[in-house]
Amino acid sequence: MTAMTGTGYSLDNAWEHARRRLELVERCYDPGTLRRLATIGIEPGWRCLEIGAGAGSVTRWLCDAVGPAGRVCAVDIDTRFIEEIDAGNLDVLRLDITSTEAGRALGFGTFDFVHTRALLMHLPQREQVLDLLVALLKPGGRLLLEEGDLFPVAGLGAGGYAEAWAGIEQAFNGAGVDCRWARRLPERLTVRGIEDVRADCDVPLVEGGTPEAELFVLTATQLRDAVLAAGVTAEQLAVFELELTTPGRWLPTFALMTASGRKG
pTM here? Predict the structure, then answer.
């Protein structure tokens, strides 16, 4: 997951702790992603596209799934981590998916499967990019989108923890991120002609002091200046971090809203 915005990165892979943050994203969300990938039934010989490949765990899984007869294209605006993957059936492409040349560079109608995770929510041009993802699929090709939504914090969060999350969302909004866009993913696929749409939602609670909780401490740390500028106080951020580092505290974070389907 590379958090890319129209004005740069909101969560830049060049940050000194970026690899750790991306590895924690994988730890937190890979179980659900891999379960959904297995349900889709990706076959040997397929050509797959992973956009916003991050640290590369899904890319590695796809390379194994399609085998030597298949091909995986992993795309990111910063490919420093996926370039380390040693797979003979992998193409790594440094590309801004919002650019006008992205479709031609990738090839319209060429992929059996396209996947993104926590990417489109970060793109101000998300609707146009979703149009592009559909256009990149072959007829009959499969699409899986997984995007974050903050509704669990609104429903279950309280006190300084919830107040800090409100500031984090405001900081994201200022960078063009939409933390509520994902809740209508199934409809967005349906209106684009995607068939056999399926949708679900993972709503993990994280325990303070765990690696999963560390992911959100690092997110707030990387966004600290923007969050403070959004009106969150240093005291509220301190409460936020205390909650997330205290064993026995169970806390809401991002839900992962997902939708999949087949191009007719």
Answer: 0.90
Q: Does position 16 have pLDDT exceeding 90, yes or no?
A: no
H helix count then E strand count, the chain = 10, 11
In sequence order, the 6+-apart residues with CB closer than 8 A to the CB of 106 are 49, 73, 75, 93, 95, 136
Q: What is the DSSP string of 178-234?
A: -TTGGGGHHHHHHTTTEEEEEEEEE--EEETTSHHHHHHHHHHHHTHHHHHHTT--H
The per-residue pLDDT for 5 is 36
Strands 111-117 and 90-94: unpaired
Rounded to the nearest integer, the mean pLDDT of the chain is 91
pLDDT of residue 226: 84
Which CATH superfamily includes the segment(s) 3-150+177-203+256-263? Vaccinia Virus protein VP39 (3.40.50.150)
Burial of 86 (0-12, 13-18, 19+ CB in 10 A): exposed
Nearest alpha carbon to residue 66 among 85, 41, 43, 82:
43
Report CA-CA distances (Å) from 23 to 53, 58, 149, 253: 12, 12, 20, 17
